[in-house]
Every structure is written in structure tokens, then in C-alpha cells.
TrEMBL record:
Residues annotated as the enzyme's active site: K211 (proton acceptor), H338 (proton acceptor)
Cofactor: Mg(2+)
Keywords carried by this UniProt record: Lyase, Magnesium, Metal-binding
Organism name: Pandoraea sputorum
Presence of keyword Magnesium: yes
SUPFAM superfamilies xrefs: Enolase C-terminal domain-like, Enolase N-terminal domain-like
Family: Belongs to the mandelate racemase/muconate lactonizing enzyme family. GlucD subfamily.
Name under which the protein is recorded: glucarate dehydratase
SMART domains: MR_MLE
Catalysed transformations (reactions): D-glucarate = 5-dehydro-4-deoxy-D-glucarate + H2O
Alphabetized InterPro entries for the sequence: DgoD-like, Enolase-like_C_sf, Enolase-like_N, Enolase_C-like, GlucD-like, Mandelate_racemase_C
Boundaries of every Mandelate racemase/muconate lactonizing enzyme C-terminal domain copy: 189-283
GO MF annotation terms: glucarate dehydratase activity; metal ion binding
Pathway per the UniProt entry: Carbohydrate acid metabolism; D-glucarate degradation; 2,5-dioxopentanoate from D-glucarate: step 1/2
Length: 442
């Protein structure tokens, strides 16, 4: 490519080479998900995602990854024809087209999974815009021959730290759709320490998070204290996903005083978080009660959460999350990243974003170690996590290419598995028919 002739000149057409989107492929996939326990129930046997490939008339392909439940797929498909012929640099135009699709709505049943803001239909515009913004930005960076992070203002760090993400879990799914995973059962402190040791030995994580809200709160505190004894130098977090009442959260917080880096979403409301902070003085983090700028403003008033766990998939994309980061700087609020079950495209989008944000107060969450090595869709297999970190590269865009054979395999698995919307409570009722998943339960 002749870079000089390909330069885009802001404010005019001189020197501008027209680039047009000519093909958009949206592929729903399913990959094996372990029987991980959480406040809403248990992960279903397969996680659903959508892989987006956008090709321009100059042969570049931009990549995206987002939610794979049926309502999101409908929105993606409704938007797809409106984007053909667009310039991938026209993100304002993308936002307008997305808004028109969301205004039309989605027919049919929607299952709202309360612990995941990404399933909230009120987030449809942000989800849909983010789903396409990432491949648009990937295309822009590939067109210019630069890493995506440079479009976001440049890298303030060359690698991004992630945290070990521990779960209580069963040995295998009740209906045994495939062979048990190599992690085994984790239902007590000894097993949890072993899980943490394996994850740290394998990936080198420097901090540890426990997904809680599953066992009796005192038992979970006991487990976390066992982790503290085993890894005294590793910062710890616990996330009950709003499944503890305010009195329980206060009592457990006092038991954990001095043990935690931060206390994540122990109780389900912003007002409750504010009361908890006043009662304990502990730093509180959230990805549940501050998920948009309206809630951000209310949080500033109440001082409920001192740390926001962002997620570009439902915060409106990479640049909107950068806006959130600037807001956090303005109000002296900590920032890190939330995670859900995902593959490498999402991981690298998170990494380029986090590499561009001066205010990144804590290691980010990621489910990535829980995903099986033979179920990655990017060429070359799973992205390396070394010394707890993922590095950005000098390759253009996200630096990734699709392995089409792998993509086809996971799409076929999607067609076979029968799941179309995640519902952890339905899955849990296979184990406990009386399960209702009401929160807070403790």
C-alpha cells in the first residue's frame, strides 16, 4: 500500500481514498462453558457469542465479537443491510443507523439475566453500536496500517494486567453434553486454593477475584481467607453479584476488613452500596449499579461505588468507554474492566482499550482461562497471557485474523446445541427444581 496516497485529510476530500463496506458476515457460535456457579444459578453448557466480519472494497476485514443471544442476533441482522456501502470511518453515521434499528424494536420473548447488564433491553443501542464500532475501528486501523490502540490516542502501557477469576463449580454439567473439563470440582476452601494455584502457575496472575453469592456467606469468607493465607501477597476481590442483603454485606465486610483490594457488588442497589461504604469504609466496585452515565451521575451524588468496572460491550464501545474513563478521572473514581464468557476478539479489544486509558486502577477481569484451547476462532489459537498480562502488538488493527475452519466448527456447534438465550436459572433448576434465583438470597 502507498501510505502517502492513502492519507485521509480531516475536513476535506483532498487526498482521501474512498473506502466502502461491501460485505458483513455475522456468525453465531457456541463454545463449551464449564459448570460455573453464580448468584443467578449456573452457566449453561455452552456460551453464545456472535462473530462479526466486515470487509471493505480494498480487501481489509475488520473483526468484532459480541453477545450471541437471539435478541442481539436479530438486532445485528436488522442493522447489517443499513451498513453496506458505508465508510468505516463514519462512526457518527453508524450511530444514527443503529439508533434507527433499535427504535424499531425486537419482537418475541426476551429473557433478562439480571446479573449481566448486556442482556438488558435498555442497553440495546449501546450493545449494537459497540458490536459494530469495534470492527469499524479495526478497519480504520488496518486501512492506516497502525495498531488499533493508536486510534484511541496511543498506548500508555504495552501490556494489560488481568486477574485470576475463581469460581465455585461442579465437576461437570448434569446432562453431560461433553467430557468433564480439566478443572474438576470446586466447592470448598481446599479445592478453591488448588484452583487458584493452577491458574496462577499457568498464567502468572498477580491478583485474584472470587465469584461469590453461591455458598453461605460465612463459608465464602472462609474460602477467601484460605486464599489469603495461601497467597498473602496477591490482592483479593470478592463478587457476590448483589446476592447479599445489606446487613449480610456489612457483617461479611467487617469480617474481611484488611483482606480485600475492593469489595464488588455485594448488595444489589446503589443506595445499599452507599450505606455499606459508610458502614465499613471499604472501597466498593460495581458493574451492576453503574452501567451508564445517568447512573454514574447518581453514583457521584451517593458515593455508592468508588470503582467502576467498565465493559465496552454494553457501555457503547471503545471510545464511549474512554469517555467513562475521563469521567472517572474527573471525579476521582477508580476504573477497571468487567468480563463475561468471551473469546480472543473481545480480549484483544479490551486490551487495546485498556492500553489506551491512563486511569486503569486495577487488573481487569477475564473469563478467558476458562475457555478451552481448541475453541478459539482466531488464527494461531488462544492469545497468550504471560505474567498475568496480555500484550498489544505492532500489527494493524486488533492484530487478529479469523480461523475460518474454527469459526465453522463453532457455528455448527451453535446449530446443534439448541441454546439461543442464556438463562442460568433454568440450567440450575436441572440440579435444584425449586431454584428461583431471587436476589438477595442471603
Amino acid at each position: 500500500m502507498d501510505v502517502a496516497s492513502d492519507t485521509r485529510v480531516p475536513g476535506g476530500d483532498q487526498g482521501k481514498v474512498a473506502v466502502k463496506i461491501q460485505r458483513i458476515t455475522i456468525t453465531p457460535i457456541a463454545f463449551r462453558d464449564p459448570p460455573l456457579l453464580n448468584a443467578a444459578g449456573i452457566h449453561e453448557p455452552y456460551a453464545l457469542r456472535s462473530i462479526i466480519e466486515i470487509e471493505t472494497d480494498n480487501g481489509h476485514v475488520g473483526l468484532g465479537e459480541t453477545y450471541g443471544d437471539a435478541p442481539v442476533l436479530t438486532l445485528l441482522e436488522n442493522a447489517r443491510p443499513l451498513l453496506i456501502g458505508m465508510d468505516p470511518f463514519d462512526t457518527n453515521g453508524l450511530r444514527e443507523r443503529v439508533a434507527s434499528v433499535v427504535r424499531q424494536g425486537v419482537r418475541g420473548e426476551r429473557v433478562e439475566y439480571e446479573l449481566a447488564p448486556g442482556t438488558d433491553p435498555r442497553k440495546d443501542a449501546e450493545k449494537l453500536y459497540s458490536a459494530f464500532e469495534v470492527p469499524f475501528l479495526d478497519l480504520q486501523a488496518r486501512h492506516l496500517g497502525i495498531p488499533l490502540v493508536e486510534l484511541l490516542g496511543g498506548a500508555v502501557r504495552q501490556e494489560v494486567q488481568y486477574s485470576a477469576y475463581l469460581f465455585f463449580k461442579y465437576a461437570q454439567h448434569i446432562d453431560a453434553p461433553y467430557a468433564p473439563d480439566s478443572w474438576g470440582e470446586t466447592l470448598n476452601a481446599e479445592q478453591l486454593v488448588a484452583q487458584a494455584r493452577f491458574m496462577i502457575d499457568t498464567y502468572g496472575f498477580g491478583s485474584i477475584k472470587l465469584k461469590a453469592g453461591v455458598l453461605e456467606p460465612a463459608e465464602e469468607v472462609k474460602c477467601l481467607k484460605a486464599i489469603k493465607r495461601a497467597f498473602p501477597d496477591k490482592p483479593l476481590r470478592i463478587d457476590p453479584n448483589g446476592n447479599w442483603s445489606l446487613p449480610t454485606a456489612i457483617a461479611m465486610g467487617r469480617d474481611l476488613a484488611g483482606d480485600l483490594e475492593y469489595y464488588e457488588d455485594p448488595t444489589p442497589t446503589l443506595e445499599g452500596m452507599a450505606q455499606l461504604h459508610r458502614a465499613t469504609g471499604m472501597p466498593l466496585a460495581t458493574n451492576m449499579v453503574v452501567t451508564d452515565l445517568r447512573q454514574f451521575r447518581e453514583n457521584v451524588r451517593l458515593n455508592g461505588a468508588q470503582i467502576i468496572l467498565s465493559d465496552h460491550h454494553y457501555w457503547g464501545g471503545l471510545r464511549d468507554t474512554q469517555l467513562l474513563a475521563r469521567m472517572c478521572e474527573t471525579f476521582d473514581i477508580g476504573l477497571s474492566m468487567h468480563s463475561n464468557s468471551h473469546l480472543g476478539i473481545s480480549l484483544m479489544a479490551m486490551t487495546h482499550l485498556a492500553a489506551s486509558v491512563p486511569r486503569l486502577s486495577y487488573a481487569c477481569d477475564t473469563h478467558y482461562p476458562w475457555q478451552e484451547a481448541d475453541e478459539e476462532v482466531v488464527r494461531g489459537g488462544k492469545i497468550e497471557i504471560r505474567n498475568g498480562a496480555v500484550a498489544i502488538t505492532k500489527a494493524p488493527g486488533l492484530g487478529l485474523e479469523i480461523d475460518q475452519d474454527q469459526l465453522a466448527k463453532l457455528h455448527e456447534q451453535y446449530l446443534r446445541c439448541g441454546l439461543r438465550t442464556r438463562n442460568d436459572a433454568v440450567q440450575m433448576r436441572k440440579y435444584r427444581p425449586d431454584w428461583r434465583g431471587k436476589a438477595p438470597r442471603f
